[in-house]
């Protein structure tokens, strides 16, 4: 038997949700950088949009700190860079890998432990889809940014992991994928928070893997799964999923799609 390798659904009123996410990502921290190739590739889109100057920068959902370190190098010693993550294990790895003058904070995007109007740039790559309350996240981004400053956000929309959902779903038991929010929900939340400018670009990014084990390692290996308590799969379930995924094979390998939403929020 094997634990169900799917993403569990968020519930805004679930007091255990954030703790479960934090544990999953903390467990993944030691191997995250080696297995997060898709996440790193998508993060490059944010680096291309950075302003020329910044004095106080927040990397929201920083993981093991690779992008945070890139930001620190780009803006130099005069810039105060903070990496914030919900998972303590990720921050332990970040401190080990990047022993430089970066401030590492454990924190929740719904209630940032930062002063109001304290930052002129927030960057976040593939983190806020894990936050149940999008309005609260947008309100916090607005609060911590200085007037005239911006946030650059990558998140995921419906259609993400469509192949994974198809392969693991049964007629009587759909795969428990995260409920990804669409572009309209993000635009609306940004405007409700007070941002004067909300622009959003969306596209599908597709990555390929040699087999089902590699597909699932790309998801589970970065902590992006929170199995339901007691959810178990038999070997027959795994074999059936492998057959379903094989029907999707392309010359490049087994496809995994991400619907990438890139937001620019102007305070």
Biggest pleated sheet: 7 strands, mixed
Counting DSSP E segments of at least 2 residues, the number of strands comes to 9
Q: What is the alpha-carbon Rg in Å?
A: 18 Å
Share of residues in strands: 15-25%
Query: What overall form do the CA principal axes indicate?
Result: globular
Q: What structural category characterises the helix and strand content?
A: alpha/beta
Regions with little confidence, pLDDT below 50 for 5+ residues: 1-6, 226-230
How many helical stretches? 10
**Main β-sheet, spatial strand arrangement:** 4-3-2-5-6-9-7
Q: Can you write the helix and strand succession as a string?
A: EHHHEHEHEEHEHHEHEHE
Percent helix range:
25-40%
What value does the average pLDDT take?
87
The N- to C-terminal Cα distance equals: 50 Å
């Amino acid at each position: 038997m094997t634990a169900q390798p799917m993403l569990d659904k968020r519930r805004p009123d679930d007091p255990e949700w954030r703790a479960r996410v934090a544990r999953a990502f903390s467990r993944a921290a030691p191997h995250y950088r080696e297995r997060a190739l898709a996440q790193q590739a998508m993060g490059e889109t944010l680096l291309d949009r950075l302003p020329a100057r910044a004095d106080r920068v927040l990397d929201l959902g920083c993981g093991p700190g690779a992008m945070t370190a890139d930001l620190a190098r780009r803006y130099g010693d005069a810039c105060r860079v903070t990496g914030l993550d919900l998972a303590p294990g990720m921050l332990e790895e970040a401190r080990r890998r990047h022993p430089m003058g970066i401030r590492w904070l454990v924190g929740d995007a719904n209630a940032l432990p930062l002063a109001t109007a304290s930052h002129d740039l927030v960057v976040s790559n593939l983190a806020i889809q894990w936050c149940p309350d999008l309005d609260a996240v947008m309100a916090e981004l607005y609060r911590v940014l200085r007037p005239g400053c911006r946030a650059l956000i990558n998140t995921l929309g419906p259609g993400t992991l469509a192949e994974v959902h198809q392969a693991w779903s049964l007629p009587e038991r759909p795969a428990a994928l995260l409920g990804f929010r669409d572009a309209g929900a993000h635009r609306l939340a940004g405007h409700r928070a007070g941002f004067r400018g909300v622009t959003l670009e969306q596209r599908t990014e597709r990555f390929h893997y040699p087999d089902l084990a590699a597909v699932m390692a790309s998801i589970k290996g970065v902590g992006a799964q929170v199995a339901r308590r007691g959810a178990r799969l038999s070997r027959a379930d795994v074999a059936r999923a492998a057959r379903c995924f094989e029907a999707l094979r392309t010359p490049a390998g087994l496809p995994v799609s991400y619907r990438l939403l890139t937001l620019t929020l102007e305070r």
